[in-house]
Amino acid sequence: MSDRTVIKKTGCSGVILSGGRNSRHGGQNKAMIDLRGVRIIDRILSVMRPLFEDLVLVTNDMNAYRDLGINMVSDYFTDRCSLTGIHAGLTAIRNQNAFFVACDAPFIKKELIEKILGMIHPAFDVIVPMTSAGYEPLFAIYSKECLRVIERHLLCKRYKVTDIFTCLNVATVSEEYLREADQNLVSFFNVNTPEMISEAHEISRKQAYR
What we know:
Number of helices: 7
Oligomer: single chain
Largest sheet: 8 strands, mixed
CATH topology: Spore Coat Polysaccharide Biosynthesis Protein SpsA, Chain A
Order of helices and strands: HEEEHEEHEHEEEHEHH
Number of domains: 1
CATH architecture: Alpha-Beta Complex
Number of strands: 10
Strand content: 15-25%
Radius of gyration: 16 Å
Distance between the termini: 27 Å
Shape: globular
Helix content: 25-40%
Structural class: alpha/beta
CATH class: Alpha Beta
């Protein structure tokens, strides 16, 4: 079965979140960090584009991504956080569901995304990985059914993504199931701090010599 057939069957869009302030990187755009000659955003797109016909980038700096040829939207709420990005993405997509990933995740695996896509069901508002470290809410599927709950939380200044889960039908993806497609769970590695850039370079070097 081809990737395109899978997406038509599940009716899922793809959303990349790039609305952060990058404050821990001195204002540097994490998506543009170069790893072995490839920007993180290009690494992500190389995985996402074959999977999703409807692909959206949520950003408040559209000029930074003009070269990508991708549909872009900005946050509707002025308070910038991951939850406002999820809200903007869900508002923009053409399908009922969307798979979300952050722009600073250089090692996402197509096989893992496909396993999570395979869990889509009308009964689930959210499908989110759960590991020993907790939820992975920025590598997850959200339904448009989440929008009313998200808007209510944002209006109340409640910005933690996982807080919305108590009001929704949530399916968790077990670590054992996740490791079948991503043994070391590198899909969840995010370049959150400058120190992690060095770690990302090391992971990239190891992958190149496998």
